[in-house]
């Protein structure tokens, strides 16, 4: 399989999410003279689907984003990833069911994305507005909207992408960046299955007033990625930025919440919830919290936060949409190493399409962006090595890296799903203490060596 001679080969990308768009920009920036690129998305316009959630972009994700994107996109990064302000700690803190600290991941405090990129270690990152990040990545991208891919056809000299509207396009390489339900993956690797982790999650975005943000920040000591572990396999996640989203007297802040609990509770109790009715879903989330959590200040705060979720579109009060119909969703993942390696042909997978992972460790988008970076770097060599070799090297590295993160995220979720007795609590709390010490020592040593190295230079 090689690109046909005498013409510039064309790359087709299915899916204009974070992964597909990063790769699109990267081809144009880094491979511009070697390849043409076209990108398609099933949505009818950029506003079609809610792209909310605060998400954590780690040092590797930031570095790859800089590699993939041109200056005009990078100039807009502060809209999506505003520089950390002094009181914000862009890291994770875990507390127990009544708010006692269990774990805190030490991180280097940085003032901007540029500082993160230039660090020689990985312990830094930034909370970004996912919808804004996508908006910024749409800058200068010529997306063909309303093109729902339903599969592909390979032939000797190329590949056709097939769309639901009956049309098709021809190219030399097809990139499936079409998310967890990717039809391209299902056709290419039918035995690479989605794994259900037995946890149900309700994810929402809310605008919270300053007094609630202050209460959260005092529990979590100004750490922005916050998790409270319940005793019954449930967990309350919140991602906050302390940048006001409006100019009112009591400012509002943007908060993402994810409340998860074991799915078998819903099955056992045979409850009926209308997932198309936001009120029904939120009433259910609140009643689960009341059922699984002890009455205490923290539980009251969580209920208060969930009560702010709008049941209908509130209009344009905030500069972003807080309303996204809440639904119950399952934690699912795809481990690319769960099947033997697949054919290194003209059809290549990237992002959630090939390695979806649950959000607990905040690694899904970071992996999608790293895929875009890696695939570009491999394709830089295609004239000497040929497409097959480049894609083989991409697949090998992508599978190992992303599988590691899928499994780490899966283990975290499965551990949290188990209800805890008194003995389990002692073991869990000790494990967190040991993990904290290990991280602390690693970061201390890395920072020390780095300083010594710099002063030596
Ligand atoms: C609550 C929550 C919190 C998260 N937090 C983090 C975090 O902190 N850090 C992190 O790194 N990750 C996080 N993630 C995961 C992250 O959002 C995903 O891993 C990331 O969006 C994957 O990007 P992608 O481009 O591969 O896929 P997607 O973002 O799913 O994009 C796929 C694109 O393909 C399009 N598409 C789908 N089907 C078709 C089709 N048939 N034809 C054409 N186009 C199609 C879609 O419209 C979409 O635009 C979180 C996820 C959730 C749900």
Automatic annotation (TrEMBL):
Gene3D superfamilies: FAD/NAD(P)-binding domain. One of its GO terms (molecular function) is FAD binding. The chain crosses the membrane at residues 436-453. InterPro entries: FAD-bd (IPR002938), FAD/NAD-bd_sf (IPR036188). Coiled coil: none annotated. Keywords: FAD, Flavoprotein, Membrane, Monooxygenase, Oxidoreductase, Transmembrane, Transmembrane helix. Residues 340-400 form the FAD-binding domain. PANTHER family: FAD-BINDING DOMAIN-CONTAINING PROTEIN, MONOOXYGENASE, FAD-BINDING. This is FAD-binding domain-containing protein. It comes from Gigaspora rosea.
């Amino acid at each position: 399989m090689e690109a046909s001679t005498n013409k510039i080969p064309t790359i087709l990308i299915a899916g204009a999410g974070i992964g597909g768009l990063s790769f699109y920009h990267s081809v144009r920036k880094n491979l511009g003279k070697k390849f043409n690129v076209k990108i398609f998305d099933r949505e009818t316009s950029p506003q079609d689907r809610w792209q909310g959630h605060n998400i954590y972009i780690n040092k590797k994700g930031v570095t790859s984003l800089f590699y993939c994107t041109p200056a005009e996109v990078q100039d807009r990064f502060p809209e999506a990833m505003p520089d950390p302000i002094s009181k914000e700690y862009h890291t994770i803190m875990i507390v127990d069911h009544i708010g006692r600290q269990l774990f805190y991941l030490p991180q280097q405090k940085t003032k901007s994305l540029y500082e993160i990129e230039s660090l020689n270690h990985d312990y830094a990152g930034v909370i970004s507005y996912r919808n804004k990040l996508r908006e910024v990545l749409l800058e200068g991208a010529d997306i063909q909207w309303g093109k729902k891919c339903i599969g592909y056809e390979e032939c000797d000299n190329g590949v056709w992408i097939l769309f639901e509207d009956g049309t098709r396009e021809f190219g030399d390489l097809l990139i499936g960046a079409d998310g967890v339900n990717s039809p391209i993956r299902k056709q290419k690797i039918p035995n690479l299955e989605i794994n259900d982790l037995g946890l149900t999650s309700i994810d929402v975005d809310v605008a919270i007033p300053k007094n609630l943000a202050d209460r959260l920040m005092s529990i979590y000591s100004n750490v922005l990625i916050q998790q409270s572990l319940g005793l019954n396999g449930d967990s309350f996640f919140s991602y906050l930025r302390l940048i006001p989203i409006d100019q009112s007297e009591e400012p509002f802040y943007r908060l993402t919440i994810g409340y998860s609990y074991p799915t078998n509770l819903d099955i056992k109790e045979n409850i009926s919830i209308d997932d198309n009715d936001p009120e029904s879903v939120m009433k259910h989330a609140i009643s689960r919290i009341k059922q699984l959590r002890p009455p205490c200040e923290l539980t009251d705060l969580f209920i208060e936060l969930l009560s702010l979720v709008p049941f209908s579109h509130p209009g344009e009060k905030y500069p972003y949409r807080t309303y996204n119909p809440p639904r119950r969703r399952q934690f699912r993942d795809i481990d690319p190493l769960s099947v033997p390696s697949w054919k290194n042909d003209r059809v290549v997978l990237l992002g959630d399409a090939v390695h979806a992972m649950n959000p607990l460790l905040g690694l899904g988008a970071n992996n999608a962006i790293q895929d875009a970076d890696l695939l570009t770097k491999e394709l830089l060599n295609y004239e000497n090595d040929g497409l097959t070799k480049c894609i083989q090297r991409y697949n090998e590295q992508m599978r190992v890296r992303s599988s590691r993160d899928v499994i780490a995220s899966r283990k975290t979720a499965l551990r949290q799903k188990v209800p805890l007795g008194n003995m389990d609590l002692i073991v869990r709390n000790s494990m967190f203490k040991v993990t904290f010490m290990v991280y602390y020592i690693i970061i201390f040593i890395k920072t020390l060596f780095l300083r010594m190295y710099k002063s030596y230079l």
